[in-house]
Amino acid sequence: MKDVLRILVIRGGGIGDMILTIPALRALRRVADNLHVTLLTNWPASSTSSPVTVLTRLTLVDSVVTLPYSNSRHLRSLLALIRSLPRLRASSFDVIVCLRHSVRSRISQMLESFVFRRLVAPKVAIGFRVASQLHNLTTQEGSPIRMRQEAERLVAVLASEGLDFVSAGLYEPANPSSTTEIDSVAELLDGPGTKGVPWVAVCPFAKEAKKAWPLSRYEAVCRRLDSCLGCRFVIVGGEHDRSRGDRFARTLGDGVINTCGELSIIEVCELLSRCRFYLGNDTGPMHLAALVGTPCVAIFSAHNNPGKFYPVGTNHKISRKSVSCEGCLHAKCKYLQPLCMNAVSVEEVYENCLEIGFSA
After folding, report:
1. What is the topology classification, in CATH, of domain 179-358?
2. Looking at the DSSP assignment, which residues form a beta bridge with residue 41?
3. What tens digit of pLDDT does each residue of 155-164 get?
4. Which of 82, 163, 247, 359 has the fewest CB atoms inside 10 Å of its own CB, making it the most exposed?
């Protein structure tokens, strides 16, 4: 009998996409004790901003192959995959698990199945035929139908192939922080006059304009939280958000900390675990907050199906509005100000903050 069962898992996307894979990776780890899991992804393993470091800290992944293919449809990405085929084949994978996004064309499915089943040649390949066209369906009122949460869908991909695993605890929070991150975040937050002060993590930015709630409304919510409840705010985001974070911090006034681009992704996890709740758009930090068990007050665009990319867990409040163009799936909104985001009021988000963060 072979000592180690070698598994290749294919998953790409943004930070949130990778974090949503954690329950499925946990399930996979429960199938047998002698697993070696390699992740094929668009993220590097060594970068401190890479979500792969979260997966390795949680001992869900043993090694990483970085290829743009896992998150791109471009021809050059396919060529990069083809150039890597000898290395992948030499790894002698027993099982290849495709956990790519559910919205894929029939041609993409057939091509992936051929490349990985025939050219990499594992003993077993699963998940390549799993794709969904449900985004094309609407309710009688014309709204897109609610879809299964992505983390649950990925677990269901494994279960649909007949894999038997214990499902209890798959979606439980986890904090990948070590003493190093705990100490560095404590130094950042535990200043004079902060004892007992409720910290709120704010991520008012988004890579895509269609997912961004107006900054002026975030400012209004934060000012009310400050004046009524004495909250302190820490802004989270990536390197590309740093200058905007500085401007937003100056707008809110003294005592606001801008950490955009300043922390490793593990430090961000620790920071979020110390906050009363997360307030922001549908972003990677939102999914990191859910991972460590921090409640989320999140504002969602209506361009996608409701429910699909909501944060894992039940202790969240989601603001999402149905509008005439709901479910468009457009890469770029046709309106200068997205209708679905503008339909979310300051009052609603403020009330969600009170319910999530101060109802006890």
Report:
1. Rossmann fold (3.40.50)
2. 66
3. 999 998 888 8
4. 359
Around Cβ 56, how many Cβ atoms within 10 Å? 17
Asked if residues 291 and 19 have their Cβ atoms less than 8 Å apart, the reply is: yes
Burial of 220 (0-12, 13-18, 19+ CB in 10 A): middle
Q: Which of 220, 190, 257 has its CA nearest to residue 353?
A: 220
What is the CATH number assigned to the segment(s) 5-160?
A: 3.40.50.2000
Residues of the chain with CATH 3.40.50.2000: 5-160, 179-358
Q: Tell me the backbone φ, ψ of residue 40, rounded to 5 degrees.
A: -100, 115
Q: Which residues contact 100 (CB under 8 A, 6 or more apart)?
A: 10, 11, 12, 70, 112, 127
Which residues does 183 contact at the CB level (< 8 Å), separation at least 6? none
pLDDT, tens digit (0-9, with 9 covering 90-100), for 341-358:
999 999 999 999 999 988
Burial class (CB in 10 A: 0-12, 13-18, 19+), 190: exposed
For residue range 91-119, list pLDDT tens digits in order.
Answer: 999 999 999 886 666 667 777 788 888 89
Rounded CA-CA distance 189/196 in Å is 11
pTM for the predicted model, two decimal places:
0.93
Residue 173: Cβ-neighbour burial (10 angstroms; 0-12, 13-18, 19+): middle
